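Reader question, answered in our methods column.
A reader sent in the components of a multi-part assembly and asked whether the whole thing could be modeled at once rather than chain by chain. We filled in our standard form and ran it. Here is what they sent:
COMPLEX SIZE: two components
ENTRIES:
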Amino acid sequence: MRDDAARSSDAEIVRQVLDGNVNAFESVILRHRGLVLSIVKKHVPEAAIEETAQEAFVRAYQSLPTFKGTGDFSQWLSSIAVRTGYDYWRKAYRSREIPISALTDKHSQWLEEVISQRPEEALDEREHQMEAREILNWALGKLSAGDRIVLEQVYLEGLSVQETAELLGWSKANVKVRSFRARMKLEKLLRRVKDQGRRGR
Amino acid sequence: MRFRVSENESVKKAFQDAYSTKERGETGEEWQSQVMRRVRQIGPLSPAASFWPAFESMVWRLAPVSCALVLVLTFFFMNLELDVDSDYLGTVAAEMEKPSLVELFDLEG
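And here is the structure of the entire assembly that came back:
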């Protein structure tokens, strides 16, 4: 019931904007700012969150005429936010502005420790998150923009192939192939981190 | 079967947790004003504006097909044995054999 109400008022706002009331778009920002930011912040570095979220809303505004009022507006907007994040990395790779921090033995030790843990053993999250994040950022920085986005959606977000294909506007076959390839690359990179620790000892 | 680091449940969970709590993302009033400023610069959306996004997406959808077509045609023409000189001569000879209008109607004075 609440979803229907939200959907109908989203459609109403979209109609107002399309009728020429530009200021009505402010309501779209207010209602969906949290959603767009939560997506964008996962995909881009902290310094680029605000700009990318801004870009996502501007793109959404420009694409409003293509929104079919029958669908879910949040989903439509999420798709634009994900693609804007993807475009951020495409540009960054093109201009080679990817900060890749070097990893140390501390990271390989962490990886060894986590591997030797049993899944039911609880991780001390606060302590481990820093290392996990640094390894993840390093590994993602080594992948292409396409491999990166698909790995984020499928491996890290746990979305299905179908959902990822819809979000990115790709074919299912493309998502499957990319996902497999990206996971193989991640595997290679993680092995490298693990082996680096063994050599260091 | 070979052990995969990335498929290890603990490793995967650690990465997923780190990813989901990756960065803080809060914006203020100023941020919203900036978005609206950019939106106002674009101005009201005209129906014509809807043509371009649709056109753009169509172009991108057709791009792989066009590339494949260019490759196929390039391959085809590279393997086509064209003898330009003999073709040209053949055309000229055929033209010469055709009676001209003047001859046909015996218009020559």
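What stands out: Helices of chain B lie at 9-20, 29-42, 51-79, 84-97, 101-104. The first helix of chain B runs from residue 9 to 20.
Send us your own complexes using the same form.
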